[in-house]
Amino acid sequence: MRPSKFLAALALCAASTLHAETVDRMLLSRGGVVLEVSAPASGIVRIRMGRGKLPEDASWAVPSATRAARLPLKITRNGETVQVGATDIGARIDLRTLRADVLDGGGKLLLADLSGRSALSSEGSFRLRGRMSGDDHIFGLGDKTGTFDRKGGVYTMWNSDTYKFTQATDPLYKTIPFFMAVSDRGQAYGLFFDNTWRSNFDFGKTERGVLSISGVGGPVDYYVMAGPAPKDVLRQYAHLTGSAPLMPQWALGFQQSKWSYKSDAEVRAVAQRLRSERLPSDLIYMDIDYQDRSRPFTVNRAAFPDVRKLAGDLRGQGIRLVLITDPHIAKAPGEGYAAYDSGAAQDVFLKLPGGQYYSGDVWPGAAVFPDFSRAQARRWWGELYTGFLGDGVAGFWNDMNEPSIFNVPTRTMPLDVLHRIESDDFAPRSASHAEMHNVYGQLNSRATYEGLTRLQPDARPFVLTRATYAGGQRYAATWTGDNVSSWQHLKMGVQQLLNLGLSGFSNAGNDVGGYAGERPSPELLTRWFQLGAFMPLFRAHAETGRPDQEPWVGDEPHVEIRRRFISERYRLMPYLYAAAEENSRSGIPLLRPVFLNFPSVLANGDRLGGSEDQFMVGSDLLVAPSPTLESPGDYNVELPGKGWYDYWTGQRLDGKSQLVRPDIAQLPVYVRPGAIIPKQPLVQSTAFVPEGRLELHVYPGTDCHGDIYADDGISMAYQRGSFLRQRIRCEESPSGLKLLFEQREGSWKPWWTGLALYVHGWTADEPPKAVLLPDMAGGAVEISR
Question: What pTM value is reported for the model?
Fold first, then answer.
């Protein structure tokens, strides 16, 4: 719908009379600056600004259909301000300066005084400023380190290879220019600034109480999400940039990796050791040493004579194979290197302004790089996986894709390298690497994901990427990069994963045990395995040249503790898989800060009401490691409310505060009162079907419910209705418990032969007894005390 003449002239009219009109977007112009306001969905407002004209309406993060959808706007003029209202969101624009206040649906101020005309310079740079509320806490921005609450910090958006990063290192591997502000009262809003150029976010460090977003170029194009609850903001952000697809279930299993297992025999020995030690596992990764001279899409046949047989034999043990495939293609003309020859024939590599290929040194030496901003280049890249998929390889790992370049001070390619954008709804044009750098890793993983879906349309792809941009969760899981074996990194990694989950990337992990540095102590390695067992991705990984740190390394007491926690993850697989499926639909992450489930805790106590040290897995499990992992002493866990249960004993706990005396064999885990948690018999791999009954562990309390979700775990059949989803509720009375089974959704026939019901907390001195039930498709069951 075109704006009316009244609206187009609105900024020039000095009359103070009240006008009102309804359109689907509003355009204003003042002093050579054009501003547009629209509402792509309920609770979301989009504001774009440009000098002379609006920036191109295109995005690598927000799909065109999402941007094209516009809700009706009610426009009201009063003097020198114009108010824009849409469903559950609004904005107030000063007609003289084009400054904007963003309001919620009730007219309450969310973000004040966002600078208008003054934000844009004549040279193309920008600095957007706004006033923040004094009690707001800031979360998001992906895998940034520093403090968990971003307030008071400055952060740079520039994807960087940061080996052995520290608490003070910035920038890191990813650019996710989205944050969520949460007040002490638990009310939240979010802001996504859709700009791939290098930029900076300043949350009141330079100017107290002032948010500043600045950059050297690119569009001023941002979205504000009105919440009002933190989960509402995440749903709104997922509406814009998408939620992660449902991963294959085996990706939730334990993953073993190293740079590198250097031969077929070594990989087989790792798999055999995992099985002989009864350490449940689903994946083994092969790093660059499986390749011929570190060249992607090749195999060193002397060390790995038959990848197909290796992959097949591992499958027989319930273990899948994942291969690394970095984006640097060895510059090897005339040497029979198929990846280079086919790419050169299709002219898909990045070039310098003079027209010659850009070449940079990486693992294979001189290398060229695909231009993933072209659909043709992404399709060429995807076809390179044909042979590996035919050999039975299950997934792929895109590393070094910031992109990382050796032997240059910047550790990346020059900013004048040219990309040729030919994709999506962008106008075909040349773009500098300064514009495309931060999205290069996202487009690399997109090319991999799209290729796998074309080659195996009914199999769920598994792609792991190191660098990415907002929206990259639609294509790949991620990890936090080259961490260090230290207590600081163990604790810091949890906060990185929580903020990644609050930035759209629920499918994330860190290298268990630490990738670099000194060998971890037995205590550090054991603690890392304990916490890793509750992370979304559970991958152990370490660099070459270090002593082994696989889970079987060390004294038997430590090995047994690690085995117990890995096994507990597999027993919890029905609960974890249901949470992963929820994330695929809603964008609510599997790993959550406590305030996401209980927003009011931010107003209680210090350290953000426990959110800096504790975390939740799904809706119902709260994990509470020591706040001083490296030197543990007794500590108190403050639970959000009363009536929680000890996960390991099933006993109901008195009060909100729990005293913990640290024990290396234990990790405090608590269960929400009112939870129903499904568990399964132990298996050594998700490839093996559990035998017997599905366990339902009931922890009576208010709002008592739980969810079951199941499908075949590997195919896309769930999108065609071949799944099982069921909600179970419970009602407690003095005489007993009523369990209500809502009607099942989907056609999937589950593996279990019935249900084993465990009711916790009825007696403090006896373990719960199993009540065997038929496989309930609907109805109610009453159980007496």
Answer: 0.96
